[in-house]
Every structure is written in C-alpha cells, then in structure tokens.
Design a protein that fits this description.
The complex is a heterodimer of chains A (301) and B (246). By secondary structure, chain A is of the alpha/beta class. Chain A is built from 11 helices and 14 strands. In chain B, 36% of the residues lie in helices and 26% in strands. By secondary structure, chain B is of the alpha/beta class. Chain B has a domain at 4-88 and 154-239: 3-Layer(aba) Sandwich (Rossmann fold), CATH 3.40.50. Chain B is built from 9 helices and 10 strands.
Chain lengths: 301, 246
C-alpha cells in the first residue's frame, strides 16, 4: 500500500495558482522530501493531504483514504507538524503532550517508546510553558505531539527552517529512527543539503514539480559537464565567468561552479585560459562533484 | 595597513547572571565580508545589537566605523546599514515609496533620492513593479531590494542578519552577487547565516560557542585547523561542544 498518492492536485488563491497538477506517490516506510523555496506550494500540498484544505482539482489518498471523503479517518491516522509553531503556548510541555494524547484517545504511556529518545531531552523542562521554550525545544515538543498517537504517516512542514546546522542534524537523526518504526514521513525543506537524507525527493518550484527521484539518481542523471573554479578575486571571477560561451556559472562554497550546456564539450584548460586572459591569477579549474543543489539550479535555468 | 572598521575588545553583555556575549575580541577590515556564525543562542544577536549601537555593553570596548559604542551610538547608526529577514521593508508601501522613505531617513536630499530610485529600480530589474506594494513581491525580490536600501546611503558597514532564508538556490546566489559588489565597492559586510556554503563565501569567519568566539580565520584555514572537509564539519565540531541551552 502507498502511504500517499497525489494525482494532479491543484489549488488556486484568488485566481493565482499555488499548486498546479502535482502528482507523486510516497511508499510505505520511506522518507519523502518536498524540496523547494518559499512560495513553491509546499504548505498548500501538506494542507491538502492532511485534509485541512480542499483541492480545486485532482485527487489524493493518504493510506488508501480519500482526502475529501475520508477526512475523519485520515485525521486519526496522520501526524502533522505545521511550519508555524501551533502548540498551546500557555500549557506546559507535559500538558501539551497529554492534551494531544487525549484528543486521539490514547495515553502518553501507550506510545511512549516512539517519543522516548526525543522526550528525554525535554523532560527537564516538562513543567515549563511551551511558549517559553527555545526554538529547538519547541521543534522537539511539536514532533512528540505529532507522534503520540502513533500515526501511519507523518507530515512535517519545514521542521528545520531557521534552526542551526547542529540541531538540524540531530533532527534528521530522529527522523531516521522513526523510519525504522515503519512510519512513512513526508517532509519539506528549503535546505538542499537535507535532501540527501531522504529516500526520494521531489524538487518543487512555483507550484510545479520539476523532478522526482532518489537523491543518488538525481545526481547521476545530471548530464552536463560541471567544473569547479577558483581564482584570486571572487567578484571578478564571477563577472568574467559570465562571458564563457555555452555555460552557466554560479558561486558554490569556496569555488564557482561552471555548468556546460547540453551538447557542448569543454576542456578545463579552455576555462583556465579564458580567466587568465582576463587578468585573473591563481586560477584553478577541475571537475566538480555534482550535488542536489547543482541539479536544482540546472532545472531552474 | 588596511583600515579597521570594527574593533571589538573584550566586549561583554550580561543579562542578570547570564553572560550572553563573553569578552569577544576581533577586528574587521574595510571591504571585508566577515561571517559571524554560531548556533541558535550562541550570542550572535546580542553582539550584533551592541555593534549597531542598540544595546549598551556590560563591559569591554568597541569602535564601529571609528565611533565609540558607548558614547557615539547616533553616529554609528548613520554610518551603518542593517538588514534582517524579520524587519526590512514596509510591506504596505510600494517599491518606490520604500526607497524614498529610507532614503529620507538616511538623510539623502530629494535629488539624491530621485537618482538613487531610478538607479536601483533599473539595476534590480524592478521597472514593471515599481508601483506595486512590497507585500506582493516574491521573497527573492524583496531581499534584493531590502539589501540595496540598506546600503542606499553608502554606509561604511552593512550588518546582515540571516538575510537569505527561504529562497531558491539561484536567487540566493544572485543575492550574494550583490554582496560581492558592495564589498568590491568598499562597503564592509558583516553577515550571519545558517547556510554553511554561504560561510565559504566570506573572507573571514568567526564562530561563537556559548558566548565566546571559539574560532576566527579564513574558511580555508579553519578547514585546515579543524581537519575538516567542509565548513559544515568545522561548525559541527565546534558547536557540539556547547554546554548551554538556547
């Protein structure tokens, strides 16, 4: 059984399309990532799948239930962590958790094994009001509350936005453990480096899916030649690279990446020569390892 | 000897028993892109607020653009620009109105404002939306406009507090091209970010842990020093030593 099936779902706001004929499937027990910037339509897709928003067109099923007809069943069977912190700020950590367990007709004890790893970190603060927690702690509590009824599918809308790299890494470790408990996870993020933690990803922009693949295959199918380039002056380097024909170039960490258009071939020495002719020194050109970010940029061009 | 535009010496801020910023010492040179990194709660915002003249230090010294952060905060404010993701533009004013408003605040005269407005709108490709409310602009356009407005008065230093969250990788890079250009033109850039690839774009970086600066060097030297492949690794090695919660 598929955890999610979305077929041509569309949504408009005041005549402006937010989601346009989006189709994808999530397999049971996998971590599926929706990767894209603000305004790409990620939140609308989450809200449609969790039955909080009606699609204008298309259909979708979560765990074989229809998102329009079977909304009650879906709400009982999924966990949803919205992008905006939505727990009760004036209830304590423990009260929030107890509240969500009760609403779903269960108890904290019954599914404690699911949240144990996360909750032990929160326990010292269990009598603190949720509104007084730090960003990282709020995020952990929200995850516990979304898990306490042992959902079949977990929807996480940008759980790591604005969180520092260390906390982000810890969060993804938690998700991997949940996956082992056979919970299917749909997660969105604007951070490209997190895409590699997913089993499969959909790259999304302006309401449409650009590509769906495993992170490995996405990178493998990049297709273009990709060079990494360095020189003495980064500002001038990027300026000069713009004039290399049949290429697209952009800053990439300590290097600039130069992507050669399809059906063209180029030699590293050609690029080096061009840069040196334009007065750059300490020029270094080599083949670059393709990342998901390169794939995304390529699809945007 | 290159001109020093930020000089901080044992700069400290305490809130009660809690030392948010703990005796930090560093220098930033003119035209440098200086990355100011640290986990959430490491003390970055507190330090930045002191440097912008918005918060009085508990102890220590600092000069920003040549002005003392205790006594000359008004001069500091005139000589710096500031942009953050949370506050930047007035969303219910149009593009042109925002430029005119901030130009006025920063003391430009009418003619300067007129010239700057045309220059900015053309350079950022905003001609078709010049009379639209900022709230209706895509996030990436807002960020570019916001940055350009933060340097409209040619400040000596611009402070950027996580300027690029939430946009696609291409838009994020276009934003960084504006940063390079500003630095190339002699504006010093002081930037915080959670994107470690952006850390690589900086000339030098400091990394704060528990209120202290634990590392300060070029990205290349930091990677050597910590025997790390990437800045992400460096950051992780340092930040996981943190003992205090956010």
């Amino acid at each position: 059984m598929k955890a999610v099936i979305a077929e041509n779902i569309s949504k408009q706001y005041d005549g402006k399309p937010a989601v346009e004929k989006v189709s994808f499937e999530v397999n049971e027990g996998e971590i599926f990532g929706l990767i894209g910037p603000d305004g790409a339509g990620k939140t609308s897709i989450f809200r449609i799948l969790t039955t909080l928003l009606l699609p204008d067109g298309g259909s979708a099923q979560v765990h074989h239930w229809d998102v329009v007809k079977d909304w009650r069943a879906i709400r009982n069977a999924v966990g949803y962590m919205p992008g905006k912190f939505s727990l009760y700020q004036d209830l304590t950590v423990e009260e929030n958790l107890h509240f969500f367990a009760t609403v779903f007709n269960t108890t904290i004890q019954e599914n404690y094994h699911l949240i144990e790893d996360i909750y032990v970190q929160l326990e010292p603060f269990k009598n603190r009001r949720a509104g007084k927690l730090s960003g990282g702690m709020k995020q952990k509590l929200a995850l516990c509350c979304a898990l306490i009824h042992k959902p079949k599918v977990l929807f996480l809308d940008e759980p790591t936005t604005g969180v520092d790299p260390v906390s982000r890494r810890e969060f993804w470790e938690m998700l991997k453990k949940l996956k082992q408990q056979n919970i299917s996870i749909v997660v969105s993020t604007p951070y490209m480096d997190e895409a590699s933690m997913c089993d499969r990803i959909a790259l999304i922009q302006s309401g449409s899916i650009l590509s769906i693949d495993t992170p490995q295959d996405l990178v493998k199918n990049y297709g273009n030649q990709l060079f990494r380039v360095k020189a003495n002056d980064r500002y001038r380097l990027l300026e000069v690279l713009k004039s290399v024909p049949s290429t697209k170039s952009y800053a990439f960490g300590e290097y600039a990446h130069v992507s050669v258009e399809k059906d063209h071939q180029m030699d590293a020495s050609e690029i080096a020569q061009h840069l040196q002719q334009n007065g750059l020194t300490e020029v270094e050109v080599g083949e670059a390892e393709v990342t998901i970010e390169d794939c995304f940029i390529n699809l945007l061009h | 000897m290159e001109e020093v535009v930020i000089q901080a010496d044992k700069l400290t801020k305490k809130f009660g028993d809690f030392t948010a910023t703990d005796a930090i010492t560093f220098q930033v040179r003119k035209g440098e892109i200086f990355g100011f990194l640290g986990a959430n709660g490491a003390g970055k915002t507190t330090a930045m607020r002191m440097l912008c003249g918005l918060s009085v230090p508990t102890s220590g010294e600092a000069k920003v653009a040549g002005f003392d952060i205790y006594k000359e905060t008004e001069s500091i404010k005139k000589n710096i620009g500031y942009m953050s993701q949370k506050f930047s533009l007035y969303e219910d004013l149009t593009v042109v109105e925002n430029i005119r408003f901030f130009g006025g605040i920063y003391g430009l005269n009418n003619e300067q404002i007129k010239n700057k407005t045309e220059e900015l709108i053309e350079r950022l490709g905003l001609t078709s939306v010049r009379k639209e409310l900022v709230v209706d602009l895509p996030l990436g356009w807002k960020q570019k406009l916001s940055f350009s407005i933060a340097i409209i008065h040619q400040p000596k230093i611009v402070f950027l507090d996580e300027p690029t969250g939430g946009v696609d990788p291409l838009t994020r890079r276009q934003f960084w091209e504006l940063i390079y250009e500003a630095a190339h033109n002699g504006i010093t850039v002081f930037v915080t970010t959670h994107y470690m690839d952006e850390a690589e774009y900086c000339d030098r970086l400091s990394i704060m842990v528990d209120g202290k600066i634990k590392a300060l060097d070029t990205p290349k030297n930091l990677k050597m020093q910590f025997e790390a492949e990437s800045m992400d690794e460096v950051f992780y090695k340092l930040a996981r030593q943190a003992t205090r919660a956010e």
